[in-house]
Structure formats: structure tokens, C-alpha cells
């Protein structure tokens, strides 16, 4: 089988080009396709991805695409677990968010976009994501034969010991990985990419994830929640604050586990909370090319920066 076999017949031919863009954490391959004078994105599931999980994720992706929350689906090859979507030229949501003149409008649009996602019908056959249980599984995978800095171990154990505050909000259809790399802005709408981990979750989880990765302060978080809820938020809810502590540890430990799988040696014994770069400093190093996320060292550095961020929550 060639990658071109995953395309519809009218997009195959001698002028069609398929260029690899990236590989996801699940092992999926992502490719840019140029055909018939148009651009597309092809995502082919990795061999290790569970077929049932793929079908579930695709079902949610189609719901989101139909609602204008994900790029338009052009073609699907279920046998090969391949999805072709329209290519969306990214106008950079981050640039709009970082610009003082457009910051508030971008923040409000982000909150409303997440609310639109959470208003989609929740399929009855989906199992909820339990973030703390996922962290426990990741922690179990990390421990044998892989040394972590003391502050990272302390952060993981602290979150595992904390009980989520009670909250009466119902579960919603969540993306579960709204980080900046999964946002595309077409100039009018924010679209979400990579629906691999989507499923039922508390609505504050999605909001907490993006607030952590964008390093939002308390006031910005309140305005994000207000845009999502459609009413003023004067105090951060306890459940949202809890997720703000859990998310950087969960995402950071996931990256550390990925670094382990990429044969990283683990802690050298010199890593301390004070010596590790902050998340802001890591982003600066990433922008200058001083760190490469495609490497084990890059995943390790990102993971530690996220875990350090949890101590500020």
C-alpha cells in the first residue's frame, strides 16, 4: 500500500505529491497532500493505535467538523484508518492572542469556541477520561528503571494524593488536548486538530489545559471562563484550580515517558526545581531553536518545564 492509495481516486495521479509533516504521539503519520491544484492534510493511524479508539476519535472528529470546529473532512478510508481533511492556512491564533490590540477578542473567541465544542451531543457509548487515573498509569510506566528529579516525583505524588473538589457540572464532549499546536486560526474561526484523546470530561479540563499552555494569570483565566459560561466569573472555581494543578503534571509526565521511550537516560542528579528552566524560558529556547521537540532531550526539557509550572498553581 502506498500513501496515495489512501486518497480518493480523483486526487491520485502523476502530479500528486505527499510530504510528511509530523508524527503524533500515537505513532500516526501526518502528511501534506498537493493534488488537483489544492492542498490537503492526510493523517494515517499508527500500527499501535487501537482500531476501536481510532473509530471513536474519528466519530468525534466528524461531529466537530460538521459543527465548523475542525477542518472539513474530504475523504476517509476506514480500512486503512486514514482521514483526509482540507488544508487550513494558519493565520496564527497565538499572534492574535499575544497582540495587545486583539488579545481580549482572541481570548473571548477561544472561550466561546470551547463552549461550542462542549455543546455538541455527547455520544452515549463513550467512556469518560479520568485524568488522575491516566496520571497514575503514566507514573507506573515511568518508575521502573528510570530516574526522575526529586521535584518531579514530588509533584506527581502530590497530585495523585489530591482528591478532586466536588462539582455539579455534567460531563461534556471534550477535546482533552487543547494545546497551541492543536489550534488553527483561519482568520475568522478557531479550528481544533488531533481528536485522538477526545471524549467525555469535565468542561473545566479543556479550559485548564489551554490556560496552562498559554500561561494565563488568574484574571485572564476568569475572563476565559466568563467567555465560556456567558456570564462574569469573579472567583476561580475550585475544580478549575484543581485541574490547573493536575494538567501540567499530567502533560509533563506524559512527555517524560515519551522521552524515556526515545531512550533518554533520565535524571543526571543535578536537576532541581530552581535550576530547571520555567515554561516561559523553555518557550524562548524553543523559538530560538536551542531545543528540538522531536528529540528525547526536547521532550525531557518540555516535560520538566511543565512540571515546574505546577508549583506556581
UniProtKB/TrEMBL annotation:
- Full protein name: Phosphotransferase
Pfam family for this entry, one:
APH
Give residue ranges for domain Aminoglycoside phosphotransferase: 17-220
Q: Which Gene3D superfamilies match?
A: 3.90.1200.10
Amino acid at each position: 500500500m502506498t500513501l496515495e492509495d489512501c486518497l480518493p481516486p480523483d486526487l491520485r495521479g502523476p502530479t500528486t505529491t505527499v510530504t510528511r509533516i509530523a508524527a503524533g504521539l500515537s505513532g500516526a503519520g501526518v502528511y501534506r497532500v498537493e493534488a488537483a491544484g489544492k492542498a490537503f492534510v492526510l493523517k494515517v493511524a499508527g500500527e499501535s493505535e487501537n482500531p476501536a479508539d481510532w473509530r471513536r476519535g474519528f466519530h468525534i472528529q466528524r461531529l466537530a467538523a460538521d459543527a465548523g470546529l475542525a477542518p472539513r473532512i474530504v475523504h476517509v478510508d476506514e480500512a486503512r484508518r486514514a482521514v483526509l481533511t482540507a488544508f487550513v492556512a494558519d493565520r496564527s491564533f497565538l499572534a492574535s492572542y499575544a497582540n495587545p490590540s486583539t488579545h481580549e477578542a482572541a481570548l473571548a473567541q477561544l472561550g466561546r469556541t470551547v463552549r461550542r465544542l462542549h455543546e455538541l451531543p455527547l455520544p452515549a457509548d463513550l467512556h469518560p477520561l479520568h485524568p488522575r487515573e491516566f496520571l497514575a498509569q503514566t507514573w507506573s510506566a515511568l518508575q521502573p528503571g528510570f530516574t526522575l528529579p526529586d521535584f518531579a516525583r514530588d509533584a506527581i505524588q502530590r497530585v495523585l494524593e489530591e482528591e478532586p473538589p466536588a462539582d455539579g457540572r455534567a460531563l461534556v464532549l471534550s477535546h482533552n488536548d487543547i494545546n497551541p499546536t492543536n489550534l488553527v486560526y483561519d482568520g475568522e474561526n478557531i479550528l481544533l486538530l488531533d481528536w485522538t484523546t477526545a471524549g467525555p470530561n469535565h468542561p473545566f479540563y479543556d479550559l485548564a489545559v489551554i490556560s496552562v499552555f498559554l500561561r494565563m494569570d488568574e484574571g485572564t483565566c476568569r475572563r476565559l471562563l466568563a467567555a465560556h459560561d456567558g456570564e462574569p466569573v469573579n472567583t476561580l472555581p475550585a475544580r478549575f484550580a484543581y485541574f490547573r494543578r493536575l494538567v501540567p503534571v499530567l502533560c509533563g509526565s506524559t512527555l517524560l515517558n515519551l522521552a524515556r521511550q526515545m531512550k533518554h537516560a533520565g535524571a543526571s542528579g543535578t536537576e532541581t526545581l530552581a535550576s530547571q528552566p520555567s515554561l516561559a524560558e523553555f518557550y524562548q529556547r524553543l523559538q530560538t531553536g536551542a531545543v528540538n521537540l522531536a528529540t528525547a532531550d526536547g521532550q525531557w526539557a518540555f516535560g520538566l518545564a511543565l512540571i515546574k509550572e505546577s508549583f506556581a498553581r
